[in-house]
Task: inverse folding
C-alpha cells in the first residue's frame, strides 16, 4: 500500500523518536531538586555521556547539577555535520528531540536562565544548532570544537532571541573536523539572535579541550550561580 504524505511524515517522526529516546541520562553533582543551576553536557561522536560528565570534576561547581544524555551507539548522527541535513535524518531530528526532552525535564526543577548547555565536537554541533532553533534566555551556551549544522549556504533565519545569553565558542584554528570559518559564522548567527558571544580560536591546538576553555566555562558557571 502506498503511503500518503501525512502518513510518511508520521512514519519518519516515529523513526526519529525511537533512535535516542530510550538511551540513559547520567547525572552528577547536586540533585536537580536541590541545585542552584544546571549544566546539560552533550558528548561527541564515539564518546559517551560518562566521558563528557567527567568534566564536572574539572569545573568544580558544587551547586550545579550535571546532566549528560547518551546517544544511541555513541553517535548522534552518522555523517559529518556539514553534509546536507537530510543525509543525517532521522538521527538528527531524534538527537534534537532528545536534547529538547532533557532540557524540558531539567527546567521542571531549574529555571532556564540558570541552565547552561555545553557540547564538545559532534555534541557542540548539536548544542549550537539546538540552541539556535530554541533561542531564549539561558544561563549560557558553550560549543567546544563545533558549529551550526549543515553545508555552506544553509539558511540561518532562526526565530527567537537569546536575550543576552552568554555564549562561548572555542576551537582550534586548524581543527581537521571543524573549519574555523564555521565557528566564526556560528558566532555571528548567534550574535544576530541576541547572544553575547565570545569566540576563541587557538593556534594549532588539534581537536581537544584546553585549560583556557575550561576556565572560561567555569567563570560563566560562577556568574550563573551568583544570580
Result:
Amino acid at each position: 500500500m502506498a503511503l500518503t504524505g501525512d502518513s510518511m511524515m508520521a512514519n519518519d517522526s516515529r523513526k526519529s523518536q525511537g533512535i535516542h529516546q530510550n538511551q540513559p541520562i547520567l547525572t552528577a553533582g547536586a540533585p536537580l531538586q536541590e541545585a542552584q543551576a544546571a549544566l546539560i553536557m552533550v558528548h561527541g561522536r564515539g564518546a559517551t555521556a560518562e566521558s563528557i560528565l567527567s568534566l564536572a570534576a574539572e569545573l568544580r561547581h558544587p551547586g550545579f547539577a550535571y546532566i549528560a544524555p547518551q546517544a544511541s551507539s555513541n553517535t548522534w548522527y552518522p555523517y559529518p555535520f556539514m553534509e546536507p541535513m537530510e543525509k543525517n535524518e532521522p538521527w538528527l531530528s531524534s538527537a534534537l528531540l532528545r536534547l529538547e526532552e532533557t532540557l524540558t525535564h531539567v527546567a521542571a526543577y531549574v529555571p532556564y536562565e540558570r541552565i547552561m548547555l555545553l557540547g564538545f565536537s559532534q555534541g557542540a554541533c548539536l548544542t549550537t544548532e539546538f540552541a539556535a532553533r530554541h533561542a531564549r534566555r539561558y544561563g549560557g551556551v558553550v560549543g567546544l570544537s563545533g558549529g551550526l549544522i549543515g553545508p555552506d549556504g544553509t539558511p540561518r533565519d532562526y526565530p527567537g532571541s537569546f536575550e543576552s545569553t552568554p555564549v562561548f565558542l572555542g576551537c582550534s584554528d586548524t581543527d581537521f573536523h571543524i573549519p574555523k570559518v564555521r565557528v566564526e559564522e556560528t558566532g555571528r548567527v548567534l550574535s544576530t539572535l541576541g547572544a553575547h558571544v565570545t569566540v576563541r580560536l587557538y593556534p594549532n591546538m588539534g581537536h581537544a579541550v584546553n585549560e583556557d576553555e575550561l576556565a572560561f566555562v567555569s567563570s560563566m558557571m560562577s556568574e550563573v550561580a551568583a544570580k
